[in-house]
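Design job #97: recover the sequence.
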């Protein structure tokens, strides 16, 4: 799943690393190692007494570091080790390192003059630190510039578009990665890969993070109030809508609920038989009328049935019409008016990429969509629709269809997708 998307993103990490690695002199790497080696030789308990440059940063600055404050160790919390490292860096910055500059750092470096340490600071430690800083003061770093990454990010944007990622999503990824990386200071090759991967991961998490209603909670509520939860499924023919309704029913039967299905696609020949076939196979009651009957009446009857029988969930199939057909869209609006569904769920085929996104947009405009189910994700290498659809219409993906059997459905979680894309 999403193999091609995964490859594109890891390719970008590789390209940015390769490009910038050439600009970090080999000897710097060696010095870094020497620096780390040196810091290891200082007993850690004692170093805690040395004032930490990082901690004064985090206390005094805004949440998001300004360009000057992006350091090579963004995740490194003020720790015993970074206390010493910060101390060493602070000392070297005012002397050698032009790029580190800035009032804050020089102020910090003066604050951390050995004598300014707490009274209990052992003089030996300070001496040792000073000695190490002598070795380390010439360690340099590279600051990532826009020019360094522009070409590679442009390539990424093109690759994403080819992979059916919506334009606004591809742009958002590229811009947010750029914003994240430009100005960062890198001291070693592995920094570049780590930063780039982190920047991409953050961009994608942000895109996938759309506020999601909790269907499980809604169902608990239905059980308490006796008023069934009404889910109306919309989407065009052939995307897997009827199979998906049976999958959703199976999913909630496993959770102990009793669904009823409304065969409210009375328009297409064979639609009633098709959904009846699924309902019979999973043992769910189906409410149906004749072909050509008013779909809103079928849906209404299904709701009445659920109320009468104490069933918690009504799943309404609707005609798989083209989203451009106004008559049929009007009919859908009527169903909505009559049963007032708790959620309208758009079902789209992940393999159709941008088409699925466009369909979702049209259905959202016409009747208002509250959530999305993407089918055939099991066969989807591109991941373009999965990545884009929720962001574009600002509605959550609720489930993914992962195969042809009724059990092949999974609740969608953004962090799961991030793991699929960035995991090993
Ligand atoms: P509808 O016309 O939209 O109701 O589509 P169907 O429910 O009849 O599904 C069309 C085809 O897609 C069927 O062969 C399904 O088995 C298949 N299908 C549906 N969902 C999935 C899925 O998540 N993965 C795979 N691989 N096939 C699916
Ligand atoms: P079962 O006991 O779960 O198999 O359900 P029934 O077929 O006995 O129906 C239960 C209730 O739902 C009854 O009040 C029926 O009138 C109503 N019902 C079931 N199917 C339909 C239908 O297609 N149309 C209407 N109007 N009511 C229905």
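Job complete. Output follows.
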């Amino acid at each position: 799943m999403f193999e091609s998307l995964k490859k594109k993103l890891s390719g970008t990490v590789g390209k940015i690393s390769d490009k910038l690695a050439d600009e970090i002199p080999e000897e710097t790497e060696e010095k870094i190692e020497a620096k780390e080696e040196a810091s290891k030789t200082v007993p850690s308990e004692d170093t805690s007494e040395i004032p930490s440059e990082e901690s004064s940063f985090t206390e005094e600055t805004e949440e998001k570091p300004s360009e000057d404050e992006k350091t090579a160790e963004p995740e490194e919390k003020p720790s015993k080790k970074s206390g010493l490292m910060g101390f060493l860096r602070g000392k070297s910055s005012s002397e050698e390192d032009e790029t580190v500059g800035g009032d804050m750092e020089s102020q910090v470096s003066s604050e951390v003059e050995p004598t300014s340490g707490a009274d209990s600071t052992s003089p030996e430690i300070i001496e040792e630190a000073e000695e190490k800083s002598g070795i380390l003061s010439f360690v340099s770093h590279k600051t990532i510039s826009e020019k360094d990454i522009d070409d590679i990010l442009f390539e990424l944007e093109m690759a994403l578009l080819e992979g059916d990622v919506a334009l606004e999503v591809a742009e958002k990824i590229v811009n947010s990665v750029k914003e994240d990386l430009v100005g960062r200071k890198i001291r070693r090759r592995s920094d570049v890969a780590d930063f780039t991967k982190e920047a991409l991961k953050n961009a994608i998490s942000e895109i996938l993070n759309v506020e999601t209603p909790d269907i499980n909670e809604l169902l608990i509520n239905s059980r308490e109030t006796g008023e069934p939860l009404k889910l109306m499924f919309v989407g065009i023919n052939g995307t897997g809508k009827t199979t998906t309704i049976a999958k959703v029913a199976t999913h909630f039967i496993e959770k102990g609920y009793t669904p009823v299905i409304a065969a409210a696609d009375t328009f297409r020949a064979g639609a009633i038989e098709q959904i009846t076939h699924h309902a019979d196979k999973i043992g769910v009651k189906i409410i149906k009328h004749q072909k050509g009957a008013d779909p809103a009446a079928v849906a209404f009857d299904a709701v009445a049935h659920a109320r009468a029988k104490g069933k918690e969930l009504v799943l309404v199939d609707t005609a798989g019409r083209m989203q451009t057909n106004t008559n049929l869209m009007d009919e859908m609006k009527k169903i909505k008016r009559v049963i007032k569904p708790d959620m309208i769920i758009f079902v789209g085929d992940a393999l159709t990429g941008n088409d699925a996104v466009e369909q979702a947009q049209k259905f959202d405009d016409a009747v208002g969509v509250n959530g999305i189910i993407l089918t055939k994700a099991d066969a989807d290498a591109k991941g373009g629709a999965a990545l884009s659809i929720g962001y574009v219409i600002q509605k959550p993906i609720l489930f993914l269809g992962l195969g042809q059997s009724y059990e092949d459905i999974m609740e969608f979680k953004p962090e799961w997708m991030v793991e699929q894309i960035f995991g090993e």
